[in-house]
Amino acid sequence: MAKRLIPTLNRVLVEKVLPPSKTVSGILLPEKSAQLNSGKVIAVGPGARDRAGNLIPVSVKEGDSVLLPEFGGTEVKLGEKEFLLYRDEDIMATLHD
Question: What does this protein do (predicted)?
Fold first, then answer.
């Protein structure tokens, strides 16, 4: 089994951030509460090449928090963890504190 997955071209490996199911005080939250579909970037590929052969770097870096589309991405399971593999252009935004 692979210990580290390194995406190719302009692909980004993302671990989805699951919203908490209950608050610190123990109140259960509904599944459909208004939460962002977000994730944390685990690994990025080197980038794609244009027609002239110039490297177009990926717009996110490892550790970034990103906003993900509701659908899409390729599910990847490594050990017990599940990840999603997206193309760089499919990631909607980066999230900052």
Answer: Seems to function only as a co-chaperone, along with cpn60, and in certain cases is essential for the discharge of biologically active proteins from cpn60.
> Could you give the C-alpha distances from 12 to 31, 73, 92, in angstroms and in order?
27, 10, 12
DSSP, collapsed to helix, strand or coil, labels residue 79 as coil
Domains of the chain (ranges; CATH) run 11-17+36-95 (2.30.33.40)
Pairing between β-strand 65-67 and β-strand 74-78 as defined by DSSP bridges = unpaired
Residue percentage of the chain with pLDDT more than 70 = 80
- How far is Cα 77 from Cα 89, in angstroms, rounded to an integer? 22
List the one residue out of 35, 97, 34, 92 whose CA is nearest residue 66: 92
Per-residue pLDDT at 33 exceeds 60: no
Mean pLDDT for the stretch of residues 75-83: 89
